[in-house]
Design brief:
361 residues, 84% helix, elongated, mainly alpha, 0% strand
Amino acid sequence: MQNLLLGLGTGLVAVASVVFVAVHWSRLDAAVQAGLLFAVTGAAAAATTALARRRMPATAEALGLVTVLLALADAHAVHVGALPGVGEAAYWSVAVAGVAALAWALGRGTGITTARLAAVVLAQAPLLLALLALGPAATVAELAILGQVAVVLELTHRARRSAAEPRALAAAIATVTWLAVVAAVAVEVTFADWLDTNLSGAALVLGAAAGVAGFVAWRRAADPAIRVLGLLAASLVGAAAVVVAVDSAVSVRWQPPVLGLVAAAVIAIGTRVPARWGRIPAVVEGVVAGMALVRLLAASGAAVDAAARVTGSAWDLSASTRADTFVRTTGLLGAGPTAALLGVALLLVVAARPVLGRWGA
């Protein structure tokens, strides 16, 4: 009952502060406005500190959250009263970062959790607001967001001795953000013709996302669950990045050999990962090899079908004309792609032997 009453009181104070700033702000003198709001926020912060020292944690937690909300109200008041000409996104990118820093300092100084949780949530917003203000290309924005995800995950890993709740919340937000970026790029690639997507940029973003997942798997290798999820995510997203890059940058006749070479390289690297990583790399190798073989078999089937059609319909042509038509129709049977296909086949055979040996062990 005590916690329920504290929660209700906190919500009512938050609503009251928002209503006050929205309705009565314009009726007061500018100096009175600033002094009153900052005085209330300072008093709330001081009361939070005093309650925490007196070992009244529930009340201190509730009042600490009220302090953060009042700080946001102060920031809004400053924007309306002193900096009305500054753009919304640009101003709030700086203001939210400042409030997040103050909330974290309040949480560390008093030992309360709500202020640190609020700081973790608010700290994710400044970059998004700055990107909204600057309006960069989608690829640049997505790469910047993935960079923030990597930084947040690394900080949560380094801060293993700090409170568990803020670290868990930061990791959860970073994971959801990573998934949102990957999903957004998947939509862009799926509807590339309608959205006029830059496929090279999309491949770069997917490669960066795979790198973040692999980095997490490496840094958290001691945790089997995180290691497995990180490896799977890195492998699947990395494979998607390769496919998108090849489709956008490589001609159709060269795509199967290139994908096969990439698959062979993945298999060769996967067979040399640490043994303590278990069988997940072998599973990934099998999936990647299967994807490459499907593309190779599809290309080979197309070549055989084209050859059959040329042979069946060209009896009235000369031998040289039939050969020229055959090569131009199949496409894949040129000298370069043929050599590449043979190299892919040999690499797949050589690289698959350690995989089979690992499964048999």
